[in-house]
Design a protein that fits this description.
With 359 residues, the protein is an alpha/beta fold. 45% of the residues lie in helices and 21% in strands. It has 14 helices and 14 strands. Strand 6 and strand 7 (112-116) form a beta hairpin. Helix 1 runs parallel beside helix 8 (233-240), helix 5 packs antiparallel against helix 6 and helix 6 (159-177) packs across helix 7. It is flat. The two termini are 26 Å apart.
Length: 359
Amino acid sequence: MPRPALVGTPQTGKTTLFCALTGTDYATAVAQAGAGGGKARVGVAKIQDARLDRLSAYWKPKKHTPAVVEFADTASLVLTAEGRDKNNQLLASFRNETDGLVLVVAAWKGDNAAALRTEAEVKAEVDQLATEFVFADLAIAEARIEKLKVQVTKPTPTQAKDRQELEVLRQLHAAFGEGKPASSVALKGEDAKLVKGFRFLSEKPCVVALNVPETALGKSFAVPGYTVVPVCAKLELELLGMEAGEREAFMGDYGLKKLATPDLVMAAFRSLGLQYFFTAGDDECRAWIIRKGDDAVEAASKIHTDLARGFVAAEVVSYADWEAAGGDMKVVKAKARLRQEGKTYVVADGDIINIKSGV
């Protein structure tokens, strides 16, 4: 299950946002924070997709199973020289236990929700957080380089590999020293594999969740290089606690056409290089998570390893073709939109697939 972490400084509304995303009770989340010893709170958010809803409306299945994202919420980062030592354990958990980062930044200044930051001020905090990740990666690279400098002098079976790893880490170390992230160093093939296990923070995909006050609803902000999703965490949490009819009325009062949290869930999901395909039928309509570029056999393995082992073919119709046919599989077949694809077929986002297997 994909797991991005919510990262932010104190008083940015990070835990409120976590509760709005995952449906966690706020009082429970706060109690967990006090008793958790710094451990992450984890909650699951369902990805809302109108395409899957439409498939379920057509098939009326026994089960409707959307894709999900698991969000982690932890203690806040303290962006001072004194706080950096305290951040180390927290950053280590981000490095080892999460796939991506959602940077939660407040759109207001200090304690005054009415005083909005400029885009430049928002960018400055995002840059500060990114710098913390680079500093943490620099320390990891330095420690490993020192060990390797000794190892490469010894005639061991791994000497050649150690030398190659040392050279790659020196490239990364140079970038970190200039304040550049690991993602700025173009590593390929074996070089990339050698350092994959470090899971550098500055290589993880990031999305910015800009927590805006109610007075700034509808205002757009941009941070170059990042996807920014404005969300009023406090209001979203309140709205999500209402019955549908009451929620719709309140949203109308605020001029909101839709909630922002589903967009943030999707943005975090997409940032990880993920997509999903659908299976549909009377028993279940389901979204299956795969990586972009995965082939039909890999998709089959998500459903069951036996389907991948005995893979014969994949019956595929794109969602767009299915919808153009009025959601009628008979029309899909009549228009020859149902394709037979082999093992090397690269699955597209939203494909509706039926796997044929000999096992």
